[in-house]
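task queued by scheduler; priority normal; single chain, no ligands, no partner chains; default sampling; output format set to structure tokens
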Amino acid sequence: MISVGIDISKRKSTAAILNVQGEVICSPFEFRHTKSGFEELLMYVKDYPQDEVKFIMEATGIYHLALLEFLKSKGYFVHVANPLLIKKFFDAEIRKGKTDRKDALKLSLYGTEKWFKLDDHLISEKIYNELMMLSREYNQLIAIRTKSKIQLNHLIERIFPGIEKILTDYYTELLLDFLLKYPHVSYVVKQSEKVFTKQFVKMAEKKEHTKGPQLAKKVYDLALECVPAISSSRSLEIAVESCINVLRSTQTSTDAIITQMRLLAKELPEYDMVRSMPGIGDTLAPRLIAEIGDIRRFKNAKSLIAYAGIDAPPYQSGQFEGTRRHISKRGSASLRKCGFEIMFILMRREPSEDKDIYEYIQKKRAEGKAFKVALFAGFNKMLRIYYARTMEIYSKLT
């Protein structure tokens, strides 16, 4: 039985091979992330039965995925270890050192010492992989969109302070159209009120706003009173136009991503169940499924909660037992964010049915728990329900 430790790098890796007695079968060597490079790796283990070979690698985001897919397609046992777990495992060493060759030997040694406790990595279905990829892109675009909103807010305070309060729904298409046509308060005041009102009403009608004349009056009165912090210039126009273009392009992209995620998620057996849960709509349902992935890779509900990073590990020593514990946050930040959004929406309106989670959060609030603490307690309960219901669905399919 041999353990193949692989230290993953960008487009190349370093491997070392040890047997279960800790003897070095093959000193560390490098190979490229190409077909010939992967085949070269397999040449070192071709003389051993597949059930006596285990490959050990760390999760590296995306760099290990190609090799992982290749090895699994060949039928080999592959264990993808948490990098923090590997680091803690070797923290007992007195003399520190960090090279690719050392790391490959460490991973191989970890495989020999944990031989009977290693879990074979399960390749998720293609749908889950696509959902995760789209979810990451969605989160990235939302972050860009949020920064653009903040930047536009700063620009508004400098060029036309107070306009967003009049055009009520912040960052609606009407507000963006208005700022493109009037990127500075001076563009409004240089026109007569009659001319401005006519132009504004025409703009509002295109967006199906029925209160165009009333809004035009308020906007014109504000323009006469407000004092901008910067004078009109071509540079200012470019800044406003650029910010609005980013907002609109990210909105178009996120809409397309959510539409595709919804189409993919509907092919999964758990989609209807997830969609029926309180606080989860057409946007959050595919996002939640994407962040959790294939539920069958978790051995129980506690594993799912730990993956989300909302578990509170116990702290006890002697006669002391800690009661004021915090969530670990050692898990998926994206899943926690998605869960917080769901709980926040849930608490805005009491559901007509399936009230268990809502009532549980209200109970925690009545006990004096902080708002966020109560929401994450509700999310903890929701994940337990999610795990139980989804596993029941899959058990009926098998």
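post-processing summary
- The longest helix spans residues 126-159.
- The mean pLDDT is 90.
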